[in-house]
Specification:
The protein is α/β, with parallel strands linked by helices. About 40% of the residues lie in helices and about 10% in strands. The protein starts with 5 loop residues before the first helix and ends in a 6-residue tail after the last helix.
Length: about 1050
């Protein structure tokens, strides 16, 4: 009930009617407390987070009741409700304490195990310094590039960037985004983030060295929104780019690219976008590939120009960026803007909604999982303030500030981290445009200096404010905030009212949003405003406080100018301020600041040094700071000068320069088959020289597999311990896949003739459509039976060769060999095999002499990012043992390592008692706490556990085939059951079509998906035209394919 001061009035009324209460009938609460003060009780016991608006309505009804007896009864009932609130508050506090204690114990246990695995005592260097703008991969605040401090420095930096042609992708999915006339505040999804991402794209597009910036968002063609949101592409007008016109090209600049996904004619809130994320990813992937090829023709010498980074904004875009980054093998950046765990904690504290109700309303658990996945996949996480790192990101399993410092110290010493990774936390405050701001000089009665000959009329808002003041010449203390209890405006008014020297020296201006009538405001805002008005009356501040009812957004700069003209001060007294953009705006206009010491203002003050920080709860501290700045003119002038001198550090050029330097520190990654170290062209060629050069060591990249055993590749050796070996291996892999892409296939000892059939694989490149069998049976016999029925449904097209097949499964390649032989299938019946839940990719070979399978080792290089290797394997084995130990009555292992089924990129475990193992979310939590990045998947109805790289999955393997071989996702049809392995949700949605076989794998739902972090229904696309249900019969399957338009009737 923060700020609901009206509560005091009716609580005091309870005291007033005390004698009217029959002592024998009075409540137990009143009798037990003796001299009971409801006001004091409420203030001391009831949590400020409650906003009991219904309590206020009850009080209004009680006031209107004429019967004293009925009125007394209502007031007593209200007192009971307050008491119940206090009980609820204590219960919530207890639950919060339990959650924090549990999280702390899990963190400490994970940290101990991680340090034990790294098997070294901590040195002084590993203790690290304060959490902040630091990296688990090397750099800190001290080592980052120096800030721009002059136009000459900017020019020097710009000259260094010349010659670079960077392509950057930004993603912001929800809300309505356009370059001009943004409808900020139209709804909760169209707010500050929309303005930020558009300005960021515009500013990056204006930077030297940046050729193109694409801002991806959702295309909305709904009747209730403007037509401009349905335009596929919008070019953003760049500012201050005249100096770099020579770098402009055909496709250069910054663009808003709108990808159609979700309901075609409906604008939906962000909470309902989750089922449609795969569709966006597929559409964005198609655009990036086409744009990369186009840029390659313009500036890349014929080679594709891949994005240097993909930057997701907010959880939904972070989830999308993680999938795109993995599909393209390029670095990912993430900005949370608002974090789900922090919001969940706040909502639970309020106590108005249960956890289930919160998740149903906000889809909060899906959002939190997306943020955890963003931590798993990101190279850099960009924050605005240190507070965001220390108080918000540390709530996540995937980020531990203490372990991050240990990993950073080890990397600085060039010591192995045993497969553990942490994203870099980079503090980069939002940028602002300052070129149009002219700091105000002169007195209130005089004109601006330098304009005596051509005086300009005062802005209308000046008169609107100054009409409140008896003496408008006095310095103005300016506060600009909505009437929200968190903004702490009432404390500011009290501080001003009770400090006579301050009242004599200054006026107070409160810009509290726009209002027509108090009765039309929300109850919370109305209560704050009424409290302010009562305080003005209490301290007789008439003629000294201004509180205009209306102002336009365009008036805000003029309000800052007026305050500066009167030699005033800007104040932000909020209890907690996440960033504090108004402080930067005020400094740009020459205003010293007084700001809360909680949150972002601390970072702003450290840079600008243009004011004082105060405790927002200390009324006297606020008054003293304001009086000090107003009374001491030399201090006021110094703070003003410091702010104007340092304000460029928050400009968009500075923001982008720091941003680009962060990107430059990332290890470059891109689809590696495009790379050729000797500089030769990577396009198809018939050159004999190329063929002879490239067939060397092809077995390292496309190795024919005869028995399904481990094929080598990247092994379990930690890459940090064998950098030289890894480099040699990578070079060989790059050359080998390059050879294969040119149509060269060889035996381990001899080259194959260019005219042989082997040069034509993978044959899926020739297919008009690809059918993906991804039905998750727990027996090979059932899988074989379903496969035969699918084959029978399309026997004609299969014989013609227009349809190819891919088997996508959790099985290992050795089990697939058994599946083929026992089911009467030939390896050539399938074009590809996605094995081990998406961690291995094999192709069939048409020539029996070459062996049945060939493994795509370039796929391994594509997914190996942040793969934990041996360190991960040891942790998993220890975890499996701990699960067994907890079941003291079980002598045999509940879960044991399946060495025969494991590969270099998939650690397999056999689960003997599926009902006794922890849910997959618990295992994922254990691994994230230890900074191990991977996917854990329960398969085959819970009898197997596969742990694979974070960039790998069965759905990502399909996207790899599109990126690698050009197999269109829209031409794929995925066959799945009604449920399946715990990666089942990734199989549905996207541009491909899906056929769900009725009654198949329905039992897996209860076994594997009962303890999910979020309900499966939150992410399953409903009423999608690309998804149909079919009976498990060949005729029914064919009818469903005809319904999807895949086959002709």
């Amino acid at each position: 009930m923060a700020g609901n001061d009206w509560i005091n009035s009716y609580l005091e009324a309870i005291l007033d009617v005390g004698p009217g209460l029959d002592e024998k009938k009075s409540s137990l609460l009143l009798r037990e407390r003796g001299r009971f003060s409801p006001t004091r009780y409420f203030v001391e016991e009831v949590v400020s987070g409650f906003d009991e608006t219904d309590l206020h309505r009850a009080w209004v009804r009680a006031q209107a009741t004429r019967s004293p007896q009925e009125r007394n009864t209502r007031l007593e009932n209200m007192c009971w409700r307050i008491w119940n609130l206090a009980r609820q508050k204590k219960q919530l506090e207890g639950e919060l304490a339990q959650r924090n204690a549990k999280r702390r114990l899990e963190r400490e246990r994970g940290r101990r195990e991680a340090v034990a695995d790294m098997s070294e005592d901590l040195s002084e260097g590993e203790k690290g310094d304060a959490v902040g703008d630091s990296s688990a991969h090397g750099d800190s605040i001290r080592s980052r590039l120096s800030r721009i401090n002059s136009a000459d420095a900017m020019e020097a930096w710009a000259n260094q960037q010349k010659g670079k042609k960077l392509y950057i992708v930004l993603i912001s999915l929800h809300g309505l985004i356009r370059g001009e006339n943004m409808e900020l505040g139209r709804d909760s999804d169209t707010g500050g983030q929309v303005k930020y991402v558009v300005e960021l794209a515009r500013a990056l597009g204006s930077m030297p060295g940046v050729y193109r910036v694409d801002l991806f968002t959702r295309q909305v063609s709904a009747p209730d929104v403007d037509w401009s949101y349905g335009e596929p592409t919008e070019m953003l007008t760049l500012r201050d780019s005249e100096d770099f016109l020579e770098e402009m090209g055909e496709s250069s600049g910054a663009y808003i690219v709108r990808i159609p996904f979700g309901p075609k004619d409906k604008y939906i809130p962000k909470e309902l976008l989750w089922p449609h994320i795969p569709e966006f990813v597929d559409g964005a992937l198609s655009h990036i590939i086409q744009m990369s090829k186009s840029l390659g023709e313009q500036i890349g010498g014929g080679k594709p120009v891949w994005p240097v980074a993909i930057h997701g904004h907010y959880a939904d875009a972070g989830d999308s960026a993680a999938l795109l980054s993995g599909a393209l093998n390029v670095p990912m950046l993430f900005t949370g803007h608002s974090l789900g765990r922090d919001k969940l904690e706040q909502l639970l504290k309020q106590g108005r909604l249960s956890r289930d109700e919160i998740n149903s309303t906000y889809k909060i658990m899906r959002r939190i999982e997306a943020e955890e996945l963003s931590l798993d996949s990101s190279e850099i996480v960009i924050t605005s303030t240190r507070q965001e790192i220390e108080q918000q990101w540390r709530l996540y399993d995937g980020f531990d500030p203490i372990l991050e410092r240990k990993l950073r110290a080890r990397i600085k010493r060039n010591v192995s981290c045993y497969g553990r990774f942490m994203p870099r936390m980079a503090i980069i405050p939002p940028g602002m445009e300052f070129h149009h701001i002219i700091p105000q000089d002169g007195d209130v009665d005089g004109e601006i200096e330098g304009n005596e000959d051509h005086p300009t009329p005062d802005p209308p808002i000046w008169a609107e404010i100054m009409r409140f003041f008896t003496n408008p010449r006095k310095p103005m203390i300016l506060a600009l905030a909505r009437p929200d209890p968190k903004k702490n405006i009432t404390t500011l008014v009290k501080a001003f009212g009770e400090c006579r020297p301050l009242r004599e020296l200054a006026n107070l201006t409160l810009i509290m949003g726009n209002r027509d009538g108090i009765d039309e405001m929300s109850s919370t805002n109305a209560s704050v405003l009424l409290s302010v008005l009562k305080l003005i009356d209490k301290y007789d501040l008439y003629g000294q406080v201004a509180y205009p009812k209306h102002h336009k957004q365009s008036d805000v700069p003029d309000i800052y100018r007026l305050a500066a003209k009167t030699k005033g001060v800007f104040i932000n007294p909020a209890f907690i301020e996440p960033f504090g953009l108004t402080l930067i705006e005020a400094a740009a206009h020459g205003l010293p600041i007084v700001a809360t010491k909680n949150g972002g203002p601390v970072d702003i003050h450290r840079v600008l040094d243009n004011g004082l920080l105060v405790d927002p709860h200390d009324q006297q501290s606020i008054a003293d700071a304001l009086l000090k700045l107003v009374a001491e003119k030399h201090l006021w002038a110094k703070c003003r000068q410091n702010g104007l001198k340092n304000i460029h550090l928050f400009s968009w050029p500075e923001h982008c320069k720091t941003y680009l330097s962060r990107i430059a520190s990332c290890k470059p990654r891109h689809p590696q088959w495009q790379k050729n170290d000797d500089g030769s062209d990577t396009s198809d060629t018939d050159s004999p020289g190329d063929s002879l050069r490239d067939i060397q060591d092809l077995s390292l990249n496309l190795k024919f597999s005869l028995d399904g055993e481990k094929t080598g590749g990247s092994g379990n050796d930690n890459s940090l311990d064998s950098e030289g070996t890894a480099t040699d291996k990578k070079s060989k892999i790059e050359n080998d896949v390059l050879a294969w892409s040119k149509g060269v296939v060889k035996d381990t000892r001899k080259a194959v003739d260019q005219n042989s059939s082997s040069v034509k694989f993978p044959s899926l490149r020739r297919r008009k459509q690809i059918f993906v069998i991804a039905v998750d049976f727990d027996t090979i016999t059932s899988l074989a039976e379903a496969t035969r029925k699918i084959f029978e449904a399309v026997e004609k097209e299969r014989t013609e060769g227009s349809i190819g097949f891919i088997l996508s499964t959790s099985l290992a390649i050795s089990e697939i060999r058994f599946f083929l032989s026992s089911g009467g299938f030939s390896p050539s019946d399938f074009d590809a095999f996605i094995c081990n839940s998406g961690s291995d990719l094999y192709y069939s070979t048409p020539n029996p002499e070459d062996g049945p399978f060939v493994v795509d080792f370039y796929y391994h290089s594509h997914i190996e990012y942040r793969w934990g290797g041996e360190g991960l394997r040891k942790t998993l084995v220890r975890w499996a043992s701990s699960v067994t130990d907890k079941k003291a009555d079980n002598k045999e292992g509940i879960i044991t390592a399946a060495e025969r089924l494991s590969t270099d990129y998939c650690y397999a475990f056999t689960v003997k008692m599926p009902g006794s193992v922890p849910a997959v979310k618990e295992l994922q939590k254990v691994l994230r706490i230890q900074a191990l990045r991977c996917h854990a998947i329960y398969c085959q109805n819970g009898t197997r556990l596969n742990v694979i790289p974070v960039c790998a999955s069965r759905s990502q393997a399909l996207r790899y085939l599109y990126v690698r071989w050009g197999v269109e996702l829209a031409n794929m049809v995925v066959f799945a059951g009604e449920c399946g392995d715990t990666d089942y949700e990734g199989l549905l949605g996207g541009l491909h079509k899906s056929v769900i076989l009725k009654g198949v794998c329905s039992s897996a739902s209860n076994q594997l998906h009962a303890n999910r972090s979020y309900p499966l229904t939150d992410v399953m696309p409903s009423e999608s035209p690309n998804i149909v249900r079919a009976p498990e019969e060949s005729s029914g399957i064919r009818n469903s394919l005809e319904q999807l338009g895949c086959l002709k009737g």
